[in-house]
Specification:
The structure is a single chain. 40% of the residues lie in helices and 9% in strands. The chain is mostly helical and 197 residues long. A three-stranded mixed β-sheet has the order 3-4-5. Helix 2 packs antiparallel against helix 3. The two termini are 21 Å apart.
Length: 197
Amino acid sequence: LNDYLSSIATADSSELETQNQNVAFWTNVYNAYTLKLIADHFPIDSIMDIKVKGHSSPWDVPFATVANKNYTLNQIENEVIRPNWPDPRIHYALVCAANSCPQLRSEAYVAEDLDKQLDEQGRWFLSHRNSFDRKARTATLSKVYEWYSVDFGNSPQDTLRMIAAHAEPSIRQELTQNSKAWKVSFLEWDWSLNVKK
């Protein structure tokens, strides 16, 4: 991990030409620095336990050095990735070290496979961090869709239509064609550390 972080600290990000190259690079950066943050403070029960004087949260500490510039995790997500290469699937790839987060892949994101990787993450997230009752037409969704509603259509029904592509085939058509008939609620976020027992 330290070798990788040393390499990106002086990397030339201007060599990244395509959206997929940039998204893969910065997603790997975000996840690697989150791992570093946890490792440096371990053992802890939650990333929320990390307190750094002068900073309101661990996401606001400018400790991530990329291409000779310091960033916070919030800056990487909300000032670098989301505004420059908008793709709501990024929320299935950025891992904040909590149990309610997406899974952390056992491989790096790479430009040539990025669409496949993000779609796999989307399918995993839909089936493991959300629940759908087709008979009652109720969807219990991750807080991600509430916190980042602007990335998912700004209304619960728009969100259902957007995420339908990654849903199980049995409910995909329902979410796409009958989204207005569905009731949506949001799960509480589990901030406990997503460490293996």
